[in-house]
Amino acid sequence: LGALAAGLFLSTLLSQVLIAQGIFQVDAAVPGNGNWFAHLRFPLPNALALYALNDDNQVGASFYWATVVAVVGVLIAGARKSLRAVESLVRRRVWFSLAVLLITTLAVCFIGERSSAYRAIFPLTGVVLVLFVHALRLLTVRSKVRLTHYAVLGLAGVVIAITANRSVQTLVADAQGREWELMQNTVVRASFTRPVRVHIVMPSDADRSTERVYGDEYGALSSGTDAMARDMFKAALHARYPDRLPSGGSYTLATGYDDPLTGTYDLLIDMRKLAGER
Questions:
Q1: For residues 41 and 209, which has the higher predicted lDDT (pLDDT)?
Q2: H or E segment at 188?
Q3: Which secondary-structure segment (H or E) carries 64?
Q4: For the chain, what percentages of helix, strand and coil (3-state, to nearest 5) are there?
């Protein structure tokens, strides 16, 4: 676990050096870029929470931090017990830790899109989960693994799987599905047999369809940026007209966060309606 933390630190240091040299560019859409505290906040504590999210609005904070404390306690207790291992096992553990250090440093820089946060959380959690299960075995099994041990591990696995699935399903898949449905339904009902002035009112974070939000991944809005709103509209239009628009049809597209002036549009797509799904 110490090697994992050191790898995160080195990847953060490397990212900052590359950004300072102009080799990497800071991406404001990726949480943690250019911010040391955010780099430490996003990946490691969330990995220790075993897929429980550190919500931006502190929703579910008690469960989150209780999980972190419990996992850290088990890891520390398991580490203390493992220190009594034979010398050869200690040597193998040292080489393993160095490998984890190197792999974490390199992987996080690339997986996290120049940030030791973002999509690096799930693979880091996998590493912590392996260490957690190993620590539990050290603490609970004296000589032989019994059926009760498998039952407890199975129950823990079910809880972890449900937590991970809920985060991905309700805060990513369902949320983005609602955005796509709103965009697609509006495009399907519109007529494109003549020139059409289209205006998309983009949503703010307050207009999201989920109660919880974490960083720019879970519960965040895809259509909240100009580029993504335009791409979603074009994808919906292509799904309706795979080859080309009807004869005489064309469109101009504008986006904004405020209501457009009356008479400046023919088709209004108000993505702020997502808030009604919350």
A1: 209
A2: helix 174-189
A3: helix 61-82
A4: 60, 5, 30
